[in-house]
Each structure stands twice: as structure tokens, then as C-alpha cells.
Amino acid sequence: MDHALDQHLVRDVATLEAIYGAASEASQAKEVDHVHPLYARFIEKAPFFVLATGGPGGMDASPRGDAAGFVTVADPRTLLIPDRRGNNRIDSLRNILADPRVALLFLVPGVGETLRVNGRASISIEPALLERFAVGEKAPRSVLVVAVETVYFQCSKAIVRSGLWDPTRHVARSALPTSGTILATLSGERINAAEYDAALPERVRATLY
Length: 209
Fold this sequence. Notes:
The longest helix is centred in the last third of the chain and has 14 residues, at 193-206. With 209 residues, this protein is α+β, with helices and mostly antiparallel strands. 33% of the residues lie in helices and 26% in strands.
């Protein structure tokens, strides 16, 4: 590391607090130890959240999405989340088995505020619970049961600065490498880019659930 940079690293909480100052009363009041009915409305309207986990192999942040309401508030201290089909790496689930602590960040399209839930997750394969979250005849392979510890309502500054929901700032998919191009490059051309990209839309459609 550059010596000048190393000299200016923050290394203790006292220094950090001196730089940033005290947290506002509003930011303290927004954090509660349960899913308040007002917060439940954000979860019920969210079709997307990011699941953060950690384990022996390192950290993981995994996107999770489905029709709004796919995360169920079973009670003020419990969330139920179907684990839909993915790539079978199951990084998040491996981490949860090693360390149940999780963080969830919910986003609602068009809304600037986000909602963060911290808690501890377990992985259930109870048949009735799996069936409860079936889409058509396809049940999830497992359901995450999250014991809620804290819930925090994030202000809109990050979304406003990023322009996330502003269609005039959306990036054309063609401006970035395709999935096939990325896989072909990283696999040393073992995966054919054109073939992968051509098959991808149907593969996504067929394996959503």
C-alpha cells in the first residue's frame, strides 16, 4: 500500500466518530427490533432484495427477486423466503450453514427509500412450507426462515444520487459485454459465446421456477 495512503487510514471508532459526528435522532428512531406494520408494507411491495451472508469461504451478496410479496412476513419477527432456482452454487446457503447471520436490503421500483433487515436465517425443507411457495407445480427446494433482529429504513439519498429509477440514465444492455462473451473469455473459450447467448433467453424462461 502507498505510504501516504497508509498514513491517513482510519483505525479506530473514536476517529471515525470525530470525522462524521453524532447520528441524528431520526436515524436512531428508525431502527426497531421487529417488522413494524409500516415496514411490512415495503417488504410486501418489494420484488427484489439483496441477501448478504458470510462464511469460511468469504462474503456473498446475492440478488433475489420474484413477484412483489414473495417474501412473507409470517409475524413481526419472522420472514419466510422461497429459494428459487439459480446456478446451484448455493454460496448463500453454504454460508448460512456456517454462520446464520444475514442482512437483507429491499428495493421497491420507483421508490427512493430502501429497507434493511438484519437477522439469523435457517434453511427449511418442511414439505408444507415448500408447497406454500410453489409456483404452478414447481416448489422451491428450500425456504429461508429469517429470525428478525433489527429493521432499518434507509433514506432516499443513494437512489437519488444514482438516478437508479430514472429511465433517461438507464444503460443499454448492448453497451456491456454479453453473458456469453464473459463466460467464453473467463473459461478460456471452452464455452462458445454465440451459442450461449443464443440459448440464454429460452434457458432463463424455462428455469425461472
